[in-house]
Design brief:
- With 200 residues, the chain is mainly α.
- It folds into 2 domains: 17-120, Orthogonal Bundle (Rna Polymerase Sigma Factor, Chain: A), CATH 1.10.1740.10; 123-200, Arc Repressor Mutant, subunit A (Orthogonal Bundle), CATH 1.10.10.
- Helices cover 74% and strands 0% of the residues.
- It has 9 helices and no strands.
- The protein has helices at 5-29, 34-56, 62-76, 86-115, 128-134, 138-143, 148-159, 164-171, 175-197.
- Helix 1 (5-29) packs across helix 2, helix 2 packs across helix 4 (86-115) and helix 7 (148-159) crosses helix 9 (175-197).
- The longest helix has 30 residues, at 86-115.
- It is globular.
- The two termini are 29 Å apart.
Length: 200
């Protein structure tokens, strides 16, 4: 849809105003203002919930990770340099917390498989997409085909609206690495989505 220059400018001002508000809240949090912390928590709760789910693929850990993220925000608010966007700083914290949770979850799953021989009678992890298809959730099934890093890049690009430069800052990797991960993610999705949706 075409957006007029006036509308683009209005959106830009709105975005800048929101960033300024969030910067102000972080500055207040740095002084120990609990009300400012509650406001920032409410602003980011839904956004963080979606972000964390798309990386971890688990609903049960979202609340815990959000609490971990916001605890870091509370503790480290005074270190925020006010230069990058607040969302870049907060999502950067969330990315590494979600990544850590994913690794820990994988370790627990591997140990469970080692300790429980009865699991051999059940479908392997690669067959999990079947159950997802049965619930008509083929898009989520396709997302599961991506690596954690690829999911993070897709999430931050399409769902969070971040630029590659911001994503490279969050993931602490070169911008070309971000582009490469997106390239491979697109190739996988282009192949998997038609198969899962029954297309040719």
């Amino acid at each position: 849809m075409y957006a007029s220059p006036e509308l683009k400018m209005q959106r830009s001002f709105s975005s800048q105003a929101q960033q300024d508000k969030e910067r102000g809240l972080i500055a207040e949090i740095a002084t120990g203002d609990e009300h400012a912390f509650e406001q920032l928590y409410q602003i980011y709760f839904t956004r963080l919930s979606q972000f964390i789910f798309h990386i971890t693929r688990r609903q049960d850990c979202i609340g815990e990770i959000i609490n971990d993220v916001m605890y870091v925000v509370w503790e480290k608010a005074s270190t925020y340099d006010q230069v990058c966007r607040p969302s870049t700083w907060i999502l950067g914290i969330a990315y590494f917390k979600a990544l850590k949770s994913t690794v820990q979850s994988q370790i627990r799953e591997d140990r469970s498989v080692e300790l429980n021989d009865e699991l051999d009678y059940f479908p392997d992890r690669g067959a999990q997409w079947t159950a997802q298809l049965e619930t008509s959730n083929w898009l989520e099934a396709a997302f599961d085909k991506l690596s954690t890093e690829q999911r993070a890049v897709v999430e931050m690009t399409y769902y969070q609206g971040l630029h590659y430069s911001e994503i490279s800052e969050i993931m602490q990797c070169p911008e070309n690495t971000v582009k490469t991960r997106m390239f491979h993610a697109r190739k996988i999705l282009a192949k998997v989505l038609p198969e899962l949706s029954g297309g040719s």
